[in-house]
Design goal:
- There is one protein chain.
- The chain has 212 residues and is mainly α.
- The chain has one domain.
- The chain contains eight helices and no strands.
Length: 212
């Protein structure tokens, strides 16, 4: 059993480098896709909120719905859900907006797990490549005693490349993972603010209706 594992380890760190190259390409693809997506659904929150409040102050929920429907941002989807259920009261509108907000968060989170996984595991994969490379270097020394330490040092230097590549893959993945997570937090903060705006108008209209 030990002999079989040793023979498997003697392949060295080269196969690990191919795995890291694949993970690097996957990471780049996810970053590009998510960057384009976030650019597509970006929203100028102050302008959007100002226009929405202006329309709701004019008691024109139809125009407000039309205005919101023109935007593809996650914030707009949540607001549209609230406006569509405006007449049903704050409780129902709240529940439906919360449900839509959760769905939008899932869309914003899509594929980010790949970046997180690559960022946290690529260094360990690189370290595995280094360990395999060192095992191979010492094995080579056992069969080439004439080479002395130079055989081992050359093998170890080659093996350490896997660790360096693992870190090179992990660091950008972690950076972009945090970047997209921060953008997601900003979107969810906008959603929470807009929800309060919609609920404030719903509750105000309900008070006016009950006082008549």
């Amino acid at each position: 059993m030990v002999e079989r594992l040793l023979n498997l380890a003697l392949v060295g760190g080269e196969p690990i480098l191919y795995i890291l190259l694949f993970l690097s390409l996957l990471s780049i693809a996810v970053v590009i896709e998510r960057f384009l997506f976030y650019q597509k659904v970006s929203l100028n929150a102050p302008d959007f909120t100002g226009k929405l409040v202006e329309l709701l102050n004019g008691k024109d929920t139809k125009k407000a719905t039309e205005f919101v429907s023109q935007n593809k941002a996650p914030e707009a989807a949540v607001v549209r859900e609230g406006l569509s259920n405006y007449e049903k009261g704050s409780k129902i509108a709240t529940e439906l907006m919360e449900s839509m907000a959760f769905r939008q968060q899932q869309i914003l989170d899509k594929r980010l797990i790949f970046l997180g996984t690559i960022g946290s595991n690529a260094p360990f994969i690189g370290l595995l490549g280094t360990v395999l490379g060192i095992i191979k270097a010492f094995r080579d020394l056992a069969f080439d005693t004439q080479g002395g330490p130079s055989v081992v040092m050359a093998g170890i230097a080659e093996a350490l490349v896997a660790t360096a590549v693992g870190l090179s893959v992990a660091i950008p993945a972690v950076i972009f993972f945090n970047y997209f997570k921060n953008r997601q937090k900003a979107v969810m903060s906008n959603i929470a603010q807009l929800q309060r705006v919609i609920l404030a108008f719903i509750e105000e209209d309900a008070k006016r209706s009950s006082s008549k």
